[in-house]
Amino acid sequence: MTKKGDVISRLLQEKGVDEEILEESFPFKTKEWVELRHKHKRGGVGAKHTKNLKQINANDPNSEQIGSYNSIDGGISVKKPIKYCDFTGFHTQYQDPKTGLRYFNADFFPVVRQIPDSVRDDYLAIRKANIVLR
Amino acid sequence: MKKIFEIKPIEYKHSPSVKDASDRFIPHLRPLKSKPLADRPCIIIDNGSYECRAGWSFEETPFLKFRNMVAKPKTQVNKAIDAMHLVGDELNEFDAGKLAKRSMFDKNIVYHYQSLEHMLDYTFGHLGLAGESQIDYPLLMTEAMCNPNHCRQNMSELLFECYRVSAVSYSVDSLLSFYYNQSKRNENFSVPNTSGLIVSSSHQVSHIIPILDGQVALESTRRLALGGSHHLELLNKSLNLKYAQHKNTLQNPDAIQYIMENHTYCATNYREQTLYLEGLFNEERAYQLEEERKKREALYGNANAEYGSKEEEKKSTISGRKIVTAVYKGRTQRQNELEGEDVVDREDHIIQLPWQQEPIPTDDEIRRRHEMRKEQGQKLKEIMQRKREEKKRKMEDELADLQSLEAYREQNQVSVFNEEIQNRGVKNFEEYKKKIRLLQIKLGIKSAEEKKPDEEKYNLLEIADEFLSPEELKRKRIQKMQKTAAMLREERKQVQKIERDKIEEFKQSDPDSYLRQLYAKRKEIMDRIAERQRRKEEFSKRGSKAAQRRLQMMAEIGLGAENEGIQKKRGRPPAAQDQGGMQQGEDDDFGAADEDWDVYRGIAKDGFSDEEEDDQQGLNELEEQIAEIDPKFANLIYNTSKQPTAEDYQIRLWSDRYRGSEILFQPSIVGMENAGLSEILENILSPVSQAIREKILRCVFITGGHTKVPGFDKRIKQELTMINRAGTPINIVKCFDEQLDAWKGGAWLANNFFSSKGLNEYSISKAKYEECGHHYLKEHFCSNFFYGPKQGGAGVMQLSKVVSLLQDKVQQSEGQLKRVKV
């Protein structure tokens, strides 16, 4: 078994970490690209802002066209969702008006009532029924 | 007995070193380097959001296979270490707490290109290219279905400008998997003849892709933003909420991962399965209640069967730890007889979490501890005794000292006496007498007066008032009072003694009924407490009757003073009109009488706290008495120091086993409004003609990491059967290997199609990239389609060629139109 220090020194060597610049270096990367990255990292002009999926789709001028990411979205369900107990996952028709939790039968009612608010919110968060104050 | 499963720890893999990789690949690659580009081997990277697999096309399986994560160590000591970026299995070398992990994926697309760069650094380095100055090999990269142009631009930019890759081919992972499987299964496979329906479910998203004659029917392709990670999340949340006491084990993601991989499945018929478990649950509950009842009867007898430890009962139900062996045996047997051995395990599972047994103390140990405690008690007693004696002696000394001063007074040396007592902190004679009396009482010495017999004590009572002086009369009155008080005391003592004797006798003669009486009393108190609790709760609710009554009362008090004025205003005939004028200016005298304040007693929220305390005290006393007589009761109430058993560390998976995969079919379980897979399938297939349906459904291909869940294929078949006309042939094809098939498909594509001229057909060369720009995409049968403005240069838009599943319908409707026109 190798010691931890050995592994780390191996990794340092593999990644070609320079002791002075403190940067990884690989021979197969072009110098221009690495320098550009370096400049961007230090806050130079032209650094690309990382966009998340939502921003990418919002900025896509052709998002209406067939073949775009939005075009194959599955759409919204038109069926009535079935209600299940929050604790057991069984079918139920009972919902506690006070806490909003669904429960299977009378055995669970005292549990529903005694549950702390934070736990209740966690249960509701599973089916995104909790109220989030912003 | 029901089978109990255990959690096995997941073994962490170690990343291969660059040297190993070089030793492995460089001998292979050296002779190939001089060949033209098309004949060189291809690097295949299946860049999935869960795992990344990378390897050379001349190998059977990918050499690298790692979780697609990039991390930065945060040692804050060694700057060189902090400058590194760790990829995949390298993460396992560090403590999880000292890492800042990051995934390059948002849903199923790559958005964080810095992380991708680190991942590619690692991948190329570990594929034997560590010494090269550029990547002079073709590269096949997988991407998501309908990858946005923006992402592909960034990817191309990185690959060509940073690594100078000679040619890049983009493909879709599920298409690769599909065609690879088709080519292996059909002897006379050709792309244009292949039709099918791909149902893929991966870590983040699921796709349904119909394929007609070797083309993706893009119009009918659909995506559902749910996958394995959501399954895992649901399982994690529900188990952690249900078993908060096993936080230590269950908050470890590895344990949840293990449970998901080994204990979950996809229900073929969710409703039926749930009903089955409901039945099981109810059966068990009924059995449990029966057992509890029997136990209680054995404990308290029939009359008091109503009140047991209700709390305990409920707890055990919900954690569901009590297993009813008899029920189970019958059920599993029946199940096996009905459906044979080859049936998906529909039962709930019990999982044993790791735990450590505390050593049970031996008898010797217990005895030793007991003796030690006894010894200590004895010592303490002795010390106390010594202290008491010391105190008594001191008091006796003081008393003797004080009494010796009496001599001065008797010798009429009052001034000396006063001086002496003032030296001892006593002011005057009165106080001196008091102090002596106090000391005498404390020491148990009776004063001269008390020692007198009753006749002397109450000597004045017998004498008629006329013969007494006023002084004596006063004393007589005091004596009278004292005598009655003493007599009452005696009487009360007598009564109490009789009662005690009675109870004692009752206890001796009929202990059972006595016990029952105690239980009844206990129940009474407990009922009272419960009732109070209920009332309190009602008060806290605004809409409740109790709260309303309280409000009403408050309003009445507030209005009390103006009551009559209001009545007058409302036009009611006032009872006493002549008083009205007088009352108008009069000050209201509320609070002058003490009774007025009683009204607030009804308003006070917790006005019964005194009663509560009394009840609690009474209950404690009662329970002590009961415990004295009934050892079983003592066990029931005070048995808190029980040793934890293996059963306490078991968790039970009810619907959790199949609920996680059900989210694909019912996204409403996790609160999403999206259509589930079955609804999407229905939407896709409903406008399609029967001929094309049959063509597609002949090969329903299931791929993707999350479809490893047992029963997934059966479920899809079930759903498709429900949608389609009876008798429509539905053929479900499972891929060979859910996780590696996309990579193998890539290798298959590279080996069979990339030779000589083919490479240009399937990939973007470096020259092409420089000519046409970063958004250029070479389309082929496994790739995405380019959308947006026309591609520059030689790139031809193929979108016009996209097939539609509705072609028959379109032709039909056109024909109908023509006929109408004619």
Largest sheet of chain B: 6 strands, mixed
| Helix content estimate of chain B | 40-55%
The spatial strand order of the largest sheet of chain A comes to 1-2
The rounded Rg of chain A comes to 27 Å
- What structural category do the secondary elements of chain B indicate? alpha/beta
Beta content of chain A: under 5%
Keywords:
heterodimer, A: 134 residues, mainly alpha, two-stranded antiparallel sheet, 5 helices, 34% helix, 3% strand, elongated, B: 822 residues, alpha/beta, six-stranded mixed β-sheet, 20 strands, 54% helix
List the helices and strands and how they pair.
The complex is a heterodimer of chains A (134) and B (822).
Chain A: H1 4-14, H2 31-41, H3 53-59, E1 94-95, E2 102-103, H4 109-114, H5 117-126
Antiparallel strand pairs in A: 1-2
Chain B: E1 4-6, H1 18-32, E2 43-47, E3 51-56, E4 64-67, E5 70-73, H2 79-82, E6 86-87, E7 99-102, E8 105-106, E9 109-110, H3 113-129, E10 138-143, H4 149-162, E11 167-172, H5 173-185, E12 196-201, E13 206-212, E14 215-216, E15 222-224, H6 228-242, H7 247-250, H8 253-263, H9 270-300, H10 310-319, H11 325-339, E16 349-352, H12 363-410, H13 414-423, H14 429-443, H15 448-451, H16 454-457, H17 470-509, H18 511-540, H19 545-560, H20 563-569, H21 577-584, H22 599-603, H23 609-629, H24 631-638, E17 650-653, H25 656-662, H26 677-685, H27 690-697, E18 700-703, H28 712-723, E19 732-734, H29 741-753, H30 758-762, E20 764-765, H31 766-772, H32 807-821
Parallel strand pairs in B: 1-16, 2-10, 10-11, 12-18, 18-19
Antiparallel strand pairs in B: 2-3, 3-4, 5-6, 5-7, 8-9, 11-20, 12-13, 13-14, 13-15, 16-17
